[in-house]
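[09:14] KT: can someone run the structure on this one? pasting the chain below
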Amino acid sequence: MSEFLIYVVAGLVTGSLYGLAGMGLVLTYKTSGIFNFAHGAVATIAAFCFYTLYVTLGWPWPIALVLCVLGLGVLLGVLLERLGRTLASVSPAMQIVATVGLLIAVNGLTVTVFGAESRSVPPFLPVDNLSLGGLNVGVDQVIVFLIALSSAVGLFLFFRTTTLGLSMQAVVDDPALLSMGGTSPVRVRLISWVIGASFACLSGVLLVPTVGLDATILTLLVVQAFGAGAVGLFSSLPLTYAGGLLIGVLAALSTAYTGSVSFLAGLPSAVPFLVLFAVLLFAPKRRLVEVGGQLRLLAKAPPSFSPPTKAVVGGLSLVVLVALPVLVGAKLPIFTNGVIFVIIFLSLHLLVRTSGQVSLAHASFAAVGAAGFSHLAVDAGLPWLLAVLGAGLVTVPVGALVAVPAIRLSGLYLAVATLGFGILIERLLFGTSLMFGAALSLPAPRPEVLGLDSDRGYYYVVLALTLVMAGLATFVIRGRLGRMLRAMSDSPTALSTLGAGVNSMRVLVFCISAFMAGIAGALFAGLTQSVGAVGFSFFASLTWLTILVISGAPFRYAPLPTAVLGGINIAVLPSYLTDERLLSLLPAVFGVAAVANALLTDRDTSRAPSQEERDAPAVLGGQGGRRAAARRRSPVTARMAVPAPPSPAARDLTGARL
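[09:31] RB: done, structure tokens below
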């Protein structure tokens, strides 16, 4: 019994920090409509700043704590509020890309400045033990729990008893009405962002003595707050805190009772994402209402070029690709890797830009394909080409499984669900015999006929399969199915009224995309002739999404040029950067570019008014501005939506036979 209580206490301490971070995330989402995937990055910044002040410079920990929680909380809250106000006028998909890009940028900058190695941080709270009912509990554990609990109670009372707290609730429902009452929605949102950022900073500082100073680990641990937010359905702050406690206790108990079972070794770290995925899968759909959900991603038909232009560009490109082994010499494996990534970005383009879905589990598709290829080619002894095809087919059921949340979710919740699914695959299956095994590495052969096992021969094999996958993607995107997918992105309801099976199309596009990613995973395995978990983490999925967005901007998201530039950016460009510091800075550059692209190139004039437009009475200030807003917005028309003009995909649909 005492052992059981020890794990419960440890779970309550960790879970209280999950709940604390989750409340900050939910608070900013409720008041701004922006789900901040970079919430963990805020905690990471605070943890590194605390390390610098407390360990490197030797400042007293109370001063370092106050500066890193309150000072950084205010600064980062102000910056994030301004970013969120700008993101209010872009599509949900680009909001996700922008905050994911911010996460990658912060992670890249911390690695550049502090290095990639993990560092230990000495405890700053008292480490003596207290005897509570015969159970020895650390004083630091009690202090952390009380800090988190008092913060949660204080925030709850603040919402229930103060005018500002009530205003934070009102700003979600009707910011214009709030502004006409003399309260600025901008100021209310600013304060909520400051509180949310401060909670993230506090959780990061309190976690760092336990988990160490590692940007990726800190980011992932605070991402576990997503599970706490899911328990509160991303709306209830008390339930979010309770969800954090529940997740912490379940994870701690699973550590105690699954430690002797090898295939369940990854269960404790996967508990938050099991909870997250289960809530999003089984919670009533009416309870999962997106704040600002009226915004949508308008899928556009791929740009069309004249036949002579296509012939000239295609012919020159093919000549260059055939002659590439002679041109690049010893760097040929790097370019082969870039050609494989073309398949990855084509499959991701099919999901994100054509059908308007959001997938943050794409690296898991490639990982399943890579592991499946090794099992089929080595263990089952299938011929090489059949093993590659089998790897793609093995990945199809995984794509169908990920598509299950897509049937009932969209936008933000689909992104969160796919992120949770990708982390579940990584934590639960990567180390099992179903995928990479305990050694996290498997052998992978190349074709052994006609000299195709050489670097040059394998390059031509990869090129041929990439051209086949490019043909498949082009056939889907430019054909009737592509028009249907773009129409589904614009208005699933309108499409379903015409007799189209929207749910079956969602499943189909996920299966096609997963099949292509599985083929790419098999080719990755053959390139290195061994395959492991490295390169297929959830962080890779985030990076691939940002690179897809920034690579597509120069070509108006034409599928093939976007995929080619994406392969160059992720595989070829780093090989030509000889400066180690500049190379480590490259992910941060990608992240910043993704944020800039989301802010500048994805605005839609047909959508509802932006946040700044809705807040105009408060921004203008004074009774005159409020009276003018009241004249423009009568009580009768206050809640009426202005119909948007037909989208390009809807116009394209007129040529499709349903």
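[09:33] KT: thanks! Residues 293-299, 604-658 have pLDDT under 50 and may be disordered.
[09:34] RB: yep, looked fine to me
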